[in-house]
Amino acid sequence: MPIRIPNDLPAQDVLGEENIFVMGMERAANQDIRPLEVGILNLMPNKIETEVQLLRLLSNTPLQINVDLIRIDNEAPKNTPKAHMDAFYHQFDDIANKKYDGLIVTGAPLALLDYETVKYWDKMQTVLDWARRHVQSTLFLCWAAHAAMYHYFGIDRRLRDNKLSGVFTHQVNEEHDELLRGFDPVFNACHSRFGEIPLDTYQSVPEIKVLATSDKAGVYLAASRDKRLVFVTGHPEYDPDTLAGEYQRDLEAGSQPAVPENYFPGDNPCLAPLVTWRSHGSLLFTNWLNYYVYQETPFNLSDIA
To answer: 294 near 101, Cβ under 8 Å?
Structure first.
């Protein structure tokens, strides 16, 4: 599918080399269709890497999508040039009156902080309340999934003694839910987190359906029954070497991390990772765009309430 992004965004060259259809602004403007409007609130420190990962996953349907990159603070992230942020990101206050078909909220390296101590938590709560009124369906990844559960339902995650890191086997719990259409009964997905919410806690919330779980990693995928909130506790967007990079980073920081499970062949970090999660990650995003966004959103975005 064509995703419409700024012509100079670095992701355009990367995706073009992967033979992914990215449409320039001029060509997209001449198509007589109503494109989907999707926002990405990118909370990750390496913005450019995360942009590429998410835009790749948004590129697998015949729908045209306009993408807005969004930020909620003015601080320049240490791993992303200020010029990049100034050129390609919208301040939340500047788009607060806009309505979106879909919104993606990324994870953030804030696992060990209480939500109220996060420097932008007040702004984050404003965004979460805004999304319920301005977005047809919002997909939360990793830290954002737990933060959203806390904000909307008052459920706090507990912290594990050791970081959950690796590729884990999951089971489909609701095979007839559109979000899982085309999934194998058993599939793999990446996790990289300290936080967790027990299965029975999710099940105690009437508005929530638990869609996929893992014996080792717990709840991976849950959604509100009205399809407007999707909680993904893992990282379907991760590149083949992302977990390896995190492992190396933690080693260099002296934190003595465990080797990511089921990731390196024979758990040997000297070997290239075995990639087993990307097809289902792509399918998850395709299903979300089609069945939770496109099939549900009103033609006139102003009708979202």
So the answer is: yes
Its domain, for residue 77, covers: 3-159+196-238+278-303
Question: Active-site residue 237, yes or no?
Answer: yes
Is residue 266 situated within a structural domain?
Answer: no
142 is catalytic: yes
Annotated binding site for substrate: 163, 192, 249
Distance separating alpha carbons of residues 148 and 128, to the nearest angstrom: 7
Q: In this predicted model, what pLDDT tens digit does every residue of 229-267 receive, in sequence order?
A: 999 999 999 999 999 999 999 999 888 899 999 999 999
Encoded tokens for 286: 């395709």
CB 222 within 8 A of CB 192: no
* Residues 240/208, Cβ–Cβ less than 8 Å: no
Number of structural domains the chain divides into: 1
Given 142, 146, 191, 280, the catalytic residue:
142
Whether 38 maps to a domain, the answer reads yes
The larger pLDDT score, comparing residue 1 to residue 70, is at 70
Mention every residue, 6+ apart, whose C-beta is less than 8 A from residue 166. Answer: 190, 191, 243, 260, 261, 262, 263
Per the domain annotation, does 263 fall within a domain? no
What pTM was computed for the model? 0.90
Residue 256 lies in a domain: no
